[in-house]
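Practice problem: predict the structure.
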Amino acid sequence: ADALLATALATRQRVLGPAHVEIAGTLALQAQLRARQERLAEALALAGQAVAMLKQVVPADHPTLATTLI
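Answer:
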């Protein structure tokens, strides 16, 4: 799963640019995976990146931002 998410992230960054809601979603998925693997420091860092990116590309009341914060 790690390798597939890394490939997806690289592809999305190449196609969509450095900041996009889809890239933030992939970062959030990576964070969830790391949390399930009990790699909590990595999970927290990835979740933080996802939230920071979403704050740049969607309004503060966007549902994607809210679900990523949970």
